[in-house]
Specification:
With about 70 residues, this protein is an all-alpha fold. Helices cover about 50% and strands about 0% of the residues.
């Protein structure tokens, strides 16, 4: 087991990815299925109804609350 710190184990070429590059959105908008899967739930009629209501009230920001 190594006793090095995370900083010591990084190579000189390692860089953190800027936050803006980590966020993506589908070109066609967020679907109820997208929201259900982002929430880690099974796609069922009940969860799709939940997602539709959430998208109606919060818009695409609903998925941003679930994903980093």
């Amino acid at each position: 087991m190594s006793s090095s710190t995370p900083e010591e184990s990084r190579s000189i070429d390692d860089h953190c990815t800027p936050d803006a590059l980590l966020h993506t959105a589908p070109a066609g908008g967020i679907t109820p299925e997208d929201l259900v899967m982002a929430a880690g739930r099974d796609v069922t009629p009940k969860t799709l109804d939940w997602a539709r209501r959430k998208l109606e009230t919060e818009g695409s920001a609903a998925v941003e609350k679930l994903l980093p």
